[in-house]
Each structure stands twice: as structure tokens, then as C-alpha cells.
Amino acid sequence: MTRTALVTGANRGIGASIAKGLATQGLRVIAAVRDLASAEKTLNGIRKVGGEALAVEFDAGEPGSIRACVAALERDGEQVDVLVNNAGILEGERLLDMDEAGVLRSVQINALGPLLLIRLLAPGMVKRGYGRIVNMSSGWGSLEDLGPGAYGVSKALLNAITVKTAEELPACVKVNAMCPGWVNTQMGGTSAPRTPQQGADTAIWLAMLADDAPSGAFFRDRKKIGWDD
Ligand SMILES: NC(=O)c1ccc[n+]([C@@H]2O[C@H](COP(=O)([O-])OP(=O)(O)OC[C@H]3O[C@@H](n4cnc5c(N)ncnc54)[C@H](OP(=O)(O)O)[C@@H]3O)[C@@H](O)[C@H]2O)c1
User: Which residue segment(s) compose the domain that 169 sits in?
Assistant: First the structure.
């Protein structure tokens, strides 16, 4: 049975590598992106290796866009088995210096957007008895080492959302968070030691967890770590 994965922010960076990696593993991929044209490179890369992929318009910062995206998928008869909440932004140096709109943007895109997608897609997973949800967090979401501006706060909220939704969903739907390490992308910068492929590895692994695997946990390099690691 071919599973379908929805990957947010799949047009570039770690998300593009996750999309390609999942397609290589035999999943159909839906790239959820702000700008459909920006997903062409990812889609072509997947199709070249014989994978099946399509793109849908999605803005994690706009609840209306998230609802419209899921409604369009439902209209087209798409069923999402795997959700990778990868899209994210890193903004601001000091939380107290950020304007309210900037704080809200970070929290909406990095945490509340992912939560809304979980709320909209998890019921179908429960009904079909299978679901894997991967939340792309960061070591900077740790309360021991919060990242700059609203970023750390939003990733800490994403971690809390991971724990709470895993607790409320049945065991057939696994919700886990992960840190990709410091990755060479637009966000991570060119000094970062890891490639997007390396950053994507744990996400791909979590997206395909076995039925007896854990839920509500935090991972780096395929290993379970503490929420303050
Ligand atoms: N790079 C690192 O070192 C690192 C470390 C820890 C965690 N992470 C996490 O890994 C994830 C991917 O980061 P990355 O390094 O690949 O960053 P990136 O290269 O900057 O890519 C970010 C992705 O998120 C998308 N995105 C941003 N805002 C969006 C919105 N409102 N709606 C939909 N998509 C949106 C971007 O799409 P557009 O092209 O449309 O902007 C892009 O595809 C993020 O959640 C990040 O926090 C990264």
C-alpha cells in the first residue's frame, strides 16, 4: 500500500531533502508550499527517480490558507498518512525587542500552524488506523537553551504541542519532534556543518516508524533525547 506524505516547506532546505527522501522510500509526496512555482525543482527531482509528487498552496502563517489547503486535498480525494511539519522561520534577536506582529508570526508559523494541520489531518489518520506526524523542532526549543527572539519560544511551544497531541491521539498515530542539528540552508547559513540530507535523515526515519515505536518523544540522529537536550 502506497502511503502519502504531506511535507510543509518542501521547496527548499531540509524540507526538500525530506520530500526527496520519502519519495525514495516509496511514499507519494505532497509538497505544501507558499509559492507553487518554487516547488518545481523538488517535484522534478522526485519524478526523475520515478516518484510521485504534487504541490499544494499553503501558508503556515495563515489559518485560512491551511484550512483551504486541507479542504482542497479532501476535495481531490487525497488521504494524508504522514505529516511533516517542517516549514519554519527564524526571526529576531531579543524577544523583548520584537514587535507584536513578529512574535505572532513566529508562533503562528512554527507552532500554531503545525497544530492546526494536526487538528485537521489527524482525524483521518485515526479513522484509517495509521498516522505518522513529525514536528521539526530544534535544540533551541529547550528551556535550558532557548533560541533567539521568538524562535526558541515557538519551538518550545511546538515541543509542548508534540507531547500533548501524542497524549490525546491513539497509539496508531505517532507524533514526535526532532532536531536536525545545525544545517547548511538559508536559515542555518553556510558555516553550518550538516547537509540538508543529513538534517532530513531523522525526519524520514520518524515518518516511517514501526507500530511499536514511541510517540510524544524528541529525537536527534535517530536517538531519543531529553526535552532539554
Ligand atoms: N537549518 C538549521 O540549522 C535548523 C536547525 C534546527 C531546526 N531547523 C528547522 O528546520 C526547518 C527547516 O529549516 P531550513 O533550515 O530548511 O530553513 P530554510 O531553508 O529557511 O527553509 C524554510 C522553509 O520553510 C518555508 N516557510 C517559511 N515560512 C513559511 C510559511 N509562512 N508558510 C509555508 N512555508 C513557509 C520556506 O518556504 P519559502 O521558500 O516560501 O520561504 C522554506 O521552504 C525549520 O522548521 C527550522 O526551524 C533548522
Answer: 4-225
